[in-house]
# Entry
Amino acid sequence: MGIDAIEEFRKSHGINTKGNLAGILQLNRAFSKDTLPINPDDYLTGKEGQVKGLSGANCQSILEEYHIKRVLASEGGRTSRGLMGIMKDYAALINEERPSSKDFSEIERFWIDRIRKFFNSKPFRLEADESLSITAAVGNLLEQAKKRQKENPGTMYEGTVLQQLVAAKLSIIMPEVEINGASVADDPTGRGGDFNIGDTAIHCTTAPATLLMEKCQRNIKNGLHPIIITVKDRVKTAWDLAADMGFAERLEVWDIQSFLSTNVHEHGHFSQDERKTMLTDLVTSYNKILTHTRQTPACVLSTVIRKMLILAANLN
# Structure
């Protein structure tokens, strides 16, 4: 059975919401254990108002098999509108295609991928709090990226967010700066860092380690000035590693929160209106980067940065 038929079914039935995704995932698992042909009547509740056997606990049990801990639907799609019709049509499709056990496993992975994409499409949230500084706002944003990274093993949301925020800011100061994809390694491309500007090599990381320090030492040997931009609670780690390797006095280490906040305030001349203009420029710059690199994990940030404009407008 081809996945194309499943994708066509998904599109034609609009299976994009959390309830329908939760329901179809459980139905696929149930159908895989049933005897073909599937009898849709076996999946009706007594009053035929809901699909039988669906629950939040059952849905999460399947998701956890794929190391997904984030809750998809508290009721597992049991009360989702239109799921009754989806169930009957899906049973008809399965009866027609008659997938093997191996096919069912492949189909389940398809639905899991769709659920991952659903989670990944949700924008990181940032409240426009008048008492919230830009430093705190960026910190909260990175924390959300870190949490989503834990929920989706193998993805690098926090690192991508950090690097592309740096890229957006640098692009405003120096429009000619080369922007590379967040997943591009330095050495294979011959670059000294994530960004090379003049005699400076800028490295973006959420976890400074020995390999990065060795790269910074090579920067120095090659006549470059290394700068590490990391998250606030990793600044000391970077300094300690550099000190242990004997070159701390030739290195700069900045945290991303202060890097953005200081630049926005300075270039905004500590004025509310000009600060808002600077953040507007950041949005424009960021959107250009998204178009250029097409980095999916960070695409959600355009919404967040717009909310930062609201925040900045309220700062005194």
Remarks:
- The mean pLDDT is 80.
- The CA atoms of residues 67 and 153 lie 8 Å apart.
- Residues 3-121 form one domain.
